[in-house]
Amino acid sequence: MSKEPKRINKELEFNGRNTITFREVWELHKGKRLVPHEMAHSSIRVRLGKVEFLSPLFDYRMREITSRVITEHIESERNKALSMKDTKKSRRCNFKDDLKVLNAIFSCWRGYSDDERFINPICKAHFTKGFIKETHYKELAMTKKELLLFCEKLGDKTIWQDIAITQFFLAGRIQEALGLQSSRVLFEADKILVKEVAVFYHRFAGHGAVYDRT
What we know:
Distance between the termini: 63 Å
Order of helices and strands: HHHHHHHHHEEEEE
Radius of gyration: 24 Å
Helix content: 40-55%
Mean pLDDT: 73
Strand order of the largest sheet: 1-4-5
Structural class: mainly alpha
Number of helices: 9
């Protein structure tokens, strides 16, 4: 009696899952998850910009991409980054975002495929190997004192001050706002109640969801 792995392998040979390349999986992932919403979310545009990092893996079959292959790839890319230390690319501190993109592609492939033998090769050690230098802390653009001074300079009780303050509270509480419920805009009381606000939902870029942000 044949063992279960052999039966699975025959099925994979029949539908071509065992010969599919990383390039094909990237195109599949891009077509299904990224391109339809590429202008809807900044993180998607970032993923589409990772082709230079991904391209050395394009000719590998998915079954061939092991943890060791990823390790060698990260080491190679890190050496390239270090060799460009005198250029603008010296600003790179690590490959965290690149590995997150790879991890997302591999995870999605598990959803697209019935290849039960495929194991996501990304591990914590890869993030360590991709380290180049400490990420420098970036100071906030404005301190609380500077923010209050900015609003004051717009003029007391002017439309510009109202817009700036409204945007500040919306951005600070719900990030990418699509809109407010009209019933929450209290014109007579000269107030806006930040509640039941439509926002972008990160899992379905471009679609809105209503949340209670009281």
